[in-house]
Specification:
Elements: H1 3-6, H2 26-43, E1 48-52, H3 60-63, E2 69-74, H4 77-87, E3 93-97, H5 103-106, E4 114-117, H6 128-137, E5 143-148, H7 153-163, E6 167-171, E7 176-179, E8 184-185, H8 190-199, E9 202-210, E10 214-221
Parallel strand pairs: 1-2, 1-4, 2-3, 4-5
Antiparallel strand pairs: 5-10, 6-7, 7-8, 9-10
């Protein structure tokens, strides 16, 4: 069901506002600015980076000019179409259809210097540990993730309303949102991410709270 969301089910009559920062409330606009600034600093001069869940390609113009090769993957046709349109402007950007849970089958070990899994992509997958394990296989340095930060339920509710995502149910205790198009979107505390990372053989190297609504974490291998 969640695939219907990423294929634009909530946005059939207009732009995919959920992935377009110009439509966001101020806190989320600030998050996007802070995240972009952080990633530009972290990946600058890298040989090869991966964006797992490239979406409509928001980060391609920001990061492709800083690295030798940018590879973005997704599994939704709409996302791939939009990202490929943007990637045409950048010769070193490549967009592929691939599954986050099978990265080790798609790319060689340590193929990327850095991998990104941002804008709560991790909070939309079935098994976060599997995805992080697969990212670790193909990443030689750091993995960067951003997820919804627990304790910001009202901000999230306002964000979904502002961008036009139709919410059918809210699990307020666990801060999980369910959309009419089938999306299940989780949120996390730092302790949640620490536990998930440990199970994936990773550890937290650095973290920040962005825009007071998003948790940004840099992960590296434990050994």
């Amino acid at each position: 069901m969640k695939e219907e969301f990423f294929e634009g089910k909530d946005f059939e009559n207009g732009e995919f506002k959920a992935l377009m920062p110009k439509y966001y409330p101020q806190k989320y606009k600030k998050y996007i600015q802070q995240e972009t600034r952080l990633l530009r600093i972290k990946v600058k001069n890298a040989n090869r980076i991966l964006e797992a869940g490239v979406g409509i390609g928001r980060l391609i113009p920001e990061l492709s000019p800083l690295v030798n090769e940018f590879i973005g993957i997704d599994n939704a046709k709409l996302m791939l179409k939009k990202a490929k349109e943007i990637s045409k402007t950048f010769q070193n950007a490549k967009i592929l259809r691939a599954e986050l849970e099978k990265l080790g089958d798609t790319f060689q070990e340590n193929y990327f210097d850095f991998s990104l899994c941002v804008w709560n992509t991790l909070g939309n997958v079935k098994d976060e540990v599997t995805v992080l394990k697969e990212m670790s296989k193909v990443t030689s340095k750091s993995i960067f993730i951003t997820v919804y930060y627990k304790g910001t339920l009202k901000d999230r509710e306002n964000w979904y309303k502002t961008v036009g995502v139709k919410i059918s149910k809210i699990d307020e205790k666990n801060e999980i949102f369910y959309s009419q198009s089938g999306l299940k979107s989780k949120s996390y505390s730092l302790e949640d991410i620490e536990k998930i990372a440990k199970r994936a053989g990773l550890k937290i190297k650095d973290y920040k709270i962005l825009g007071k609504v998003i948790l940004w974490v840099e992960l590296t291998r434990r050994n």
